[in-house]
Design goal:
The chain folds into 2 domains: 170 residues, Thiolase/Chalcone synthase (Peroxisomal Thiolase, Chain A, domain 1, 3-Layer(aba) Sandwich); 143 residues, Peroxisomal Thiolase, Chain A, domain 1 (3-Layer(aba) Sandwich), CATH 3.40.47.10. The chain is 31% helix and 26% strand. It is built from 9 helices and 13 strands. Helix 2 packs across helix 3 and helix 6 packs parallel to helix 7. It binds oxa(dethia)-CoA (UT7). Oxa(dethia)-CoA binds next to helix 1, helix 5, helix 6 and strand 12.
Length: 323
């Protein structure tokens, strides 16, 4: 059977690093509060010339270089983002143009923080359906542009960045020994749409709007939703937490990551944590964490890797990949 095998990874971060202490003169907060409640120590913030498209392009180029491929080898670009350069056209098309790629097709996916997990699942279906052989899956965000910088309950949590994977069609035997995407489970529930949202949009206010979040409410639901969808993925693949080599969760809050891993029985040393370095970069968080753990040699060919995310909507999901 056809499997969607990871061939390369890449990442890009804005030049400017903003430390927790840099907020202390802006809103009533402290390095101690942010670090204790979230695990975040710093985040990268995009300059005017750094956009979702430019960061996405840089991450895509890095993933292509890692794969030993060029844009000519790619059939499809799927970009997960909630902060597109423009309402339309899709920022994926702008990245396609920046890469000098004038064949194939490209589109954006909007599932907020779960966007990358949705995008990998979608790319896998295009590959297995025979519509694409090699797909660039990108998560790129500039949440700094939609933050209310006077709201301490949200502005300290998010950061900007991008990560990318190249997925390529390969042959598998149909077992979990195969390399590639092995199982996935996606969920959404719009009854929670007012707990994490942006208060503007083209069809309502005609403005971009700002991010609003009832953090405690999101927190309350997060661990249960994450663990449910992961258990569904484990059962689809016929594995347990012990079979995993690496758990690469969405990086929103270290406390949510720790509680989810504990509930699932995933050992602490198997959990990839980058929220301290990047903050919550929404759809970019999972591919950024992946690229860190691949670059430092933790994730290796043949490892069983579980990706997970949860965010606005609510949306949530998990994907199991053999590297
Ligand atoms: O990516 C999508 C998923 N998003 C998430 O997973 C976010 C989920 N939520 C969270 O991570 C946490 O709820 C937060 C980090 C947002 C907040 O942590 P918390 O432990 O739930 O704190 P809280 O909202 O219950 O607030 C505790 C106190 C409040 O003061 P009072 O009411 O107890 O007097 C807040 O006003 O902390 C206050 N507070 C702050 N204090 C200093 C809120 N933000 C700050 C701040 N600095 N930046």
């Amino acid at each position: 059977m056809i499997r969607s095998v990871v061939r390369g990874t890449g990442a890009a971060l804005p030049r400017r690093i903003m430390k927790n202490a840099d907020f202390e003169g802006m809103v009533e907060t402290s390095d101690e509060w942010i670090a204790q409640r979230t695990g975040i120590r710093q985040r990268h913030i995009a300059a005017d010339d750094e956009t979702t498209a430019s960061l996405g392009e840089a991450a895509a180029r890095a993933a292509l270089a890692d794969a030993g491929l060029t844009p000519d080898d790619i059939d499809l670009i799927v970009l997960a983002t909630s902060t597109p350069n423009n309402t339309f056209p899709a920022t994926a098309v702008e990245i396609q143009d920046r890469l000098g790629m004038h064949h194939g097709f490209a589109f954006d996916m909007q599932a907020v923080c779960s966007g990358f997990v949705y995008a990998v699942t979608t790319a896998d279906l295009y590959i297995r359906g025979g519509l694409a052989k090699r797909v660039l899956v990108i998560g790129s965000e500039t949440f700094s542009r939609i933050l209310d910088w006077s709201d301490r309950s949200t502005c300290v949590l998010f950061g900007d960045g991008a990560g990318a994977l190249v997925l390529e069609a390969g042959e598998g035997g149909g077992t979990i020994a195969d390399r590639g995407v092995l199982a996935a489970s996606l969920r959404s529930d719009g009854t929670h749409k007012d707990k994490l949202f942006v208060d503007g949009g083209p069809s309502t206010t005609g403005t971009v709007g700002h991010l609003r979040m009832e953090g405690r409410e999101v927190f309350k639901h997060a661990v249960g939703m994450i663990t449910d969808v992961i258990e569904a993925t484990f059962s689809a693949a016929g594995i347990t937490a012990d079979d995993l080599d690496w758990f690469v969760p969405h990086q929103a809050n270290k406390r949510i990551i720790d509680a989810s891993a504990k509930k699932l029985g995933i050992a602490e040393q198997k959990v990839v944590v980058t929220v301290n370095l990047h903050g919550n970069t929404s759809a970019a968080s999972v591919p950024l964490a992946l690229s860190v753990a691949v670059a430092d040699g933790r994730i290796k060919k043949g490892d069983l890797v579980l990706l997970e995310a949860m965010g606005g909507g609510f949306t949530w999901g998990a994907v199991l990949v053999r590297w």
